[in-house]
Amino acid sequence: MSLEYLSAHAQDVQTYTLKTGFRITYPKSELGTFLRELYLELFERRHNVPRILEALAGWDVRKALEMFVSIITSGHLSEIAITSKVIGGSANAIKEHNVLKILMRTDYRFASDHSGVITNIFLFDRDWQKPDNFLLIETLYFLVMNRKRTGQIGLEGYWTCRHLAEALERFGYIPVDTLLALNYLLRRQLITADHLNYREVSFDDSVRISASGFMHLRILPTRLEYLFGALPTTPFLDGHTAQRMAEYVKRENSRGYLPAVEKARAVEVFYSYLFDLNRTIRAKQPFVPANNGATLALRQINSALQNYWHKTREPEPGSELDLV
């Protein structure tokens, strides 16, 4: 459909200028190759970007195409990166952190539920009775760890919301809060329900983890761009930490960008806050199992910081996360 539209409406020669001053000229007959190379790079090459996009899209082709369009038209992706990849260059290839930034922010300066397809799993609603930053994570962790087991309705991976709420009571979470968290995850399509719609679940409905939910728990918390991008919408229970985070967000807002080193420092503050929060939870709830979502998330954030400060390659799935 895109090729048919371009053949009918595009000018015979496409021209645009890079920030470096170079002018790129493309004949209309080559636009199909241009789009195809971009699509293959984002969805077919053997690296982490296609895995992330496939998981986020699920089986929804429309959603996959919408993500493709948002990536190639986003102001967060430079013309240099697009051109370099299409003409065979590698110095300015489309990096994973660029794709994550676009999927979180699309055409907006900051990420939110209204601006991207990636969800902040450290979020909670202050109207909930007794929430904290780990409630969504513990919910996803339970469903991931039990995805191969048969639940109450006899289907693999499906567990009633009531059973899940009772399981999370040992963490100190109120069942009503857990149900509200499940409904939030359902609307964001990180979980699926047995009634096959994304409107609402009750305690008697059953849910299971989706591919997107698995990716959010398994991969995204190991990425510095995801962790920093989630900060503007993350509620904090500590006022001092919230003020420090606000300074980083204010700095990015005034400059239009933030260097990677400052993003890493902001994530270090975030890690310290979550570490103290988890220690407080464990002190109040001594029967919390040793292997849990909060512990996994803290290891993942620490791994992301170590990978940045030691300038290693972007992490691949490895033994650190074999637990899930």
Structural commentary:
With 324 residues, this protein is mainly alpha-helical. 52% of the residues lie in helices and 6% in strands. It has helices at 2-9, 31-43, 48-57, 61-73, 79-86, 96-105, 135-145, 161-168, 175-187, 211-218, 224-230, 239-255, 260-284, 293-309; strands spanning 13-17, 23-27, 159-160, 191-193, 206-209. Strand 1 (13-17) and strand 2 form a beta hairpin. The chain is globular, with a radius of gyration of 21 Å. The model is unreliable at 313-320 (pLDDT under 50).
Note the main attributes of this structure.
three-stranded antiparallel β-sheet, two-stranded antiparallel sheet, 52% helix, 324 residues, mainly alpha, single chain
Structure classification: mainly alpha
**Tally of alpha and pi helices:** 14
Average the pLDDT over all residues and give the rounded result. Answer: 85
The largest beta-sheet arranges its strands as: 3-5-4
Secondary-structure element sequence?
A: HEEHHHHHHEHHEEHHHHH
The Cα radius of gyration reads 21 Å
Strand residue content: 5-15%
